[in-house]
């Protein structure tokens, strides 16, 4: 067992390598040369110590929480330039004692994960000491039985994973169908296309720089609306942050009121920039940097309608056009004002919103059922792994 000290930097005179990084292990259960690995350099000593081989098992040794540590991945195949990166530990099976594939499944079990979680140390970030990893106790049957168990788990988990993938795809299709319906309804209105600013009374952004930082956060007081709160035409209330009322009063021009249109000024691969939602009644509240707050002119627009459009695929396209020439993952206040939006009669906007809410409620009911099924399948998968490697599950060819 060895803990890698190879960082992501490149230095002259070192050997060119491809790094197996933390996310490669955390999000993938198998490692191979076909992966898109980061290019870096390492010393000859590091290459010798941390080059991965087929049959090795790699685990994450650091985490933000103790219960999310020791995630394993199996090295299915490798190349000479595949080297383990920082925050990871390399487990190499001893010949004749344990097979790599069985070791992977054993380290995936609740039994092993529980031992590592208990042994993790830290306060704001947790890590595994070498002795905690090496003292992990595993159930190790005969070599033949290890192969039988590993083959059984390979087959059964693949079947469950395929079923989970299908259910996730069904959720995606339901979501896509909802947004297709929204865009179609808006297109049928054949409305005039205008800059967003023409539908607004005013729009403001959040305070930048030292005016509002994480050091200002408190356990209660005025609510801070952050990017995590701005979903696709829905306000996400889970991500909560507060500042003192005294500090809030100094930043009153950034105030958020119920019914205001909230627009995300920053996006990523999963959440496009320009998505929007309508603020619920949050009490004293303000927007943070990269979030915009606008009051819609009631005679011209409906905040829920504008949030629907800006959150839709069509809205994402309009935002990208307005942001042309920039990074396209961030928009400033001027770009936000210039986003082209359709503006049918307010009565038509209200009708489209009403129809969309019904469609979303129907889709949400089915998606909730599918999400529950996925959760149950994941729990069954994990329980099966644990039972198989601890001998609690009867597997043909394995002694009870």
How would you sum up this structure, described in words?
The two termini are 30 Å apart. The radius of gyration is 26 Å and the shape is elongated. With 400 residues, the chain is of the alpha+beta class. The protein has a 5-stranded mixed beta sheet. It has helices at residues 22-26, 44-50, 100-108, 110-119, 130-134, 143-188, 245-250, 303-311, 313-322, 333-338, 346-389; strands spanning 2-3, 15-20, 30-31, 38-42, 57-60, 62-63, 72-75, 82-84, 88-91, 121-122, 126-127, 193-195, 200-205, 217-218, 222-225, 242-243, 261-264, 276-278, 285-287, 291-296, 340-342.
Topology at a glance:
Elements: E1 2-3, E2 15-20, H1 22-26, E3 30-31, E4 38-42, H2 44-50, E5 57-60, E6 62-63, E7 72-75, E8 82-84, E9 88-91, H3 100-108, H4 110-119, E10 121-122, E11 126-127, H5 130-134, H6 143-188, E12 193-195, E13 200-205, E14 217-218, E15 222-225, E16 242-243, H7 245-250, E17 261-264, E18 276-278, E19 285-287, E20 291-296, H8 303-311, H9 313-322, H10 333-338, E21 340-342, H11 346-389
Parallel strand pairs: 2-8, 3-7, 15-19
Antiparallel strand pairs: 1-9, 2-4, 5-7, 5-9, 6-11, 10-11, 12-21, 13-20, 14-16, 15-16, 17-18, 17-20
Helix pairs in contact: 3-11, 6-11, 8-9
Give a short synopsis of this structure.
It is built from eleven helices and 21 strands.
